[in-house]
Fold this protein.
Amino acid sequence: MHKMNLFLFVFVIACLWGLVLPIYNIQILEPSLIENLSKDFEREAVHVASHMDEFLQFPKKEPFCHSLTPDQQEKIKKVAEKFHLIRAKVISREGVILFSTNPEEIGRVKGEPFLKNQAAREQSCARIVEEVQGTPKGEVLRDVAKTYVAMGHGADFAGAFEFDFDVSPQKRLLDDKIRKPSILLLVLIGAFLVLLIALCIEVQRLLIRQKSAEQKILEMAYYDPLTGLPNRTLFQERLIQAIHHARRNGGRLALLFFDLDHFKNINDSFGHQQGDWLLRETSSRLRKHVRADDTLARIGGDEFAHLLTSVEKEHDASTVAEKILKIISLPVTVNGREISISTSVGIAFFPENGTDAEKLLMHADMAMYAAKAKGRNAYAFYSRQMNQNASRRRQGEADLRAALERDEFFLVYQPQLDLKSGRITAAEALLRWRHPEQGILSPALFVPLAEETGLIGSIGEWVLRSACRQCRVWQQSGVPELRVAVNLSAFQLQQPELMAEVDDILQDTGLRPESLELELTERLIMGNAAANVAILKRLKERGVQLAIDDFGTGFSSLNYLRDFPIDRIKIDHHCVTDIPANYHQSTIVRMTLSLARILNLKVVAEGVETEEQLRFLKEQGCDEIQGYLLGCPVEPELFCQKLMDFREAWRRAG
């Protein structure tokens, strides 16, 4: 804007100068110079004439009419040279040229009108005459000022002098004085034109920049910078417009809401840069299949929305949903690895499932979570039951947050018995919720909701810290060999701050790393095996013990038993329930124990409830057992007493 103001200021000054300067040149400068030049030559002519009058000694009374003597002629020539006259003439009263520096003119009759005019009788008569003189070759053409001066004294008129002055230098001076302002004017006009052009260019640039800035602001306000798709703001505006149009015309709309299943694992495993690339690739694939009247938008994160206009049947929406599932499930290559992802799609209709944009989005979101509950990689239509479930989910989330604030969570501990020594060697920490209205709740009733809402991170950190602190108290009470086992959730395993959190808890509680055992399920560690190997190795480097929980219910891959730094495996209670009566279950237990011995792993059998199960496991070489045979999980205050009771009962059993 400063440049703009400067250009405008110069433009106004140049315009004013361009108007004033020509008027000044024409009306003031040039006439005054010519008038002064005329007066100068009049004075010069009178001065020269006085010299001639002195040299020629004209008669005082009689008219001058005789020829000049050679001496007079010579004096006139000298005067002409002295005053740089081009030509000097002496003219009689009758107009006869008595003398001229050009001898060919002597004797001729001048016949000038001034000789018959009373003005010739004045002291002098002069005028500037611009003539082109024919000059010899090589000389410059000159401007001539022709001046007449009357001869004689008083009332007598004897004749006249005629002088031709070379006024070229004076004319050049006059021309220069007129030309310089004119040149300046031309320069100013040129400068003005240059500034005007520059101003036009600058204005054009400003307009282009302004248009570009407006376009960029529009894109930032209405389009997602990562994928180029409409963002939530633009999508809601188009959804509102589509609802108004459908309401006027009795039309029907379908809103599809979907996100990428387990997208967080992609970011955690390959990094956010590759995650962004995957979002762009997915958006590019989906965009190719969007109708001109429909809208595909990125709502945020890995969430997308697809608005279908002019929908007649539910089948139209389900067809599009199936196409979305198919497109997203196509394999992609990330960091040299081919992976497949999936999505869950929720579908809501206008006007059946909502008459405004907010309700449609909310109900489509609920339907998407219903599709996830079905196993993911699926689509689901909104129903009223989902609204009730969502209400319960929101209330449950609020209750979980309140439970954290009011310390309603507590831990109970179930012992693990070493079958060789007969000692209690470990205690598994199990979470419980003392609900103010529903009483004591087991983890199966609230942990899935905690994982879904992200509260499992805070709850898991509290469990880990509380268990380590309690184990340290028991060790200081006389059970130094005791370790505590804590279940680790998928959310905790994928958190970048997990290592720092474990280090902080161990340092804060004073518990040795080898006294802490982290339990992970097969499904958890195999969900992203490559990344989890590195995480578990870092935990193992700290001295923390690792166990595979619920062994036999997941993927059961021998490779991860070989590659992962595992200390022990825990046989799931479903495999122990019917031993030794059930031949197949007994065979599975025997094979598991044999495999563990080959891989040098410890084995803990869960769910041991009978003496028959205990004897079978002991005969087969099982290392440790856990279950109701030893006692149900108890709170910390009772656990120390249980330790003594377990040891005494074991000794009596032989």
